[in-house]
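Hi everyone,

Forwarding the result from last night's run.
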Amino acid sequence: MRKSVGIDFGTTNSAIAVAGADASLSMAKFHLNDQDTENFRSVLYFEQLREGTRRNISAHAGPSAIMRYLQAEQKGRLIQSLKSYLGSRLLTSTNVFGRPYLLEELISFLARSLRKESESSLGALGKTAVVGRPVRFSGAESAKDEEFGLSRLRAAMHSAGFEKVIFEYEPIGAAYHYETRLDHDELILVADFGGGTSDFSLLRVGPTFRRVRGSREILGTDGVPLAGDAFDAKLVRHLVSPLLGQGTSYKSLGKDLQMPAWIYIKLERWHHLSLLKSKETMQVLKSLRIQSQEPDKIEALIHLVEEDLGFYLHQAVQRAKLELSAGDATIFSFQVPGISISHLVTRKNFEQWIA
């Protein structure tokens, strides 16, 4: 049966879907934490493996990258948000364990991994794909930069085995889905809230534009480097960090001092939490626990760091964020051995925090 392949290559998450000739739709499934998900996290993880006297670099992408990162006692190099650099000429390469990697190499590896893992559930994907592209690439300052970003993305898809790549603007893909339900023309605003950026596009849709193939035109577009990751950080700052000692006091040389703010800033990005696990920082945290007026909260923070629970904490934060998008309140719950947090949070609170 003839099928069409669609790829959403995102800054934070990617996905692949297959549409059959009978209009059936199947999403690729990926395995993470004993569960299936339709989101392929757009992350890479590099680790050094010792084989005898040699050290080899092992690379992983998507869900397997996250699992390797979580399981590693000595953390390697986690790389995120590669898509945001496609249109920028400022980042050409990065150094990983002494070896330089071109940005094109990294994105190509991510694309190949996305295809390989998708075919486990979808079967062979063939050589043609429709790939979403932003109206404007982050960091692009001219039409040449836009074409530069597009050429990098096209090369990554070619590397993944897609010889024919058809690019479509991401907001047009969203508008088409909405348009199928319309019996009249409309002027609509499409909002794309991603992980790192939010993009907004204005366009006309409806029967008039549906009849004439290729007539859809984006009338205007704009974007801001502010989205889901920033919203998660606000939930951590206002909801989680106070339960782990932020704003509490400790005694030092006879004075009452507040817990250092820099510790809690690291909590706001899950992959930054491992930066607190250095020997020096752990000594600071344990000293603060002894002097703290609320040592139980600092003990919970130490446990969070020592057990590398940042990823699981942020999964709980994201669940709360999603539930607050549908309801007026939810219970934020984070239950792991050694830490039990259960707290009511309202949408009104959340909106004030992200205002």
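The chain has eleven helices and 20 strands.

Cheers,
N.
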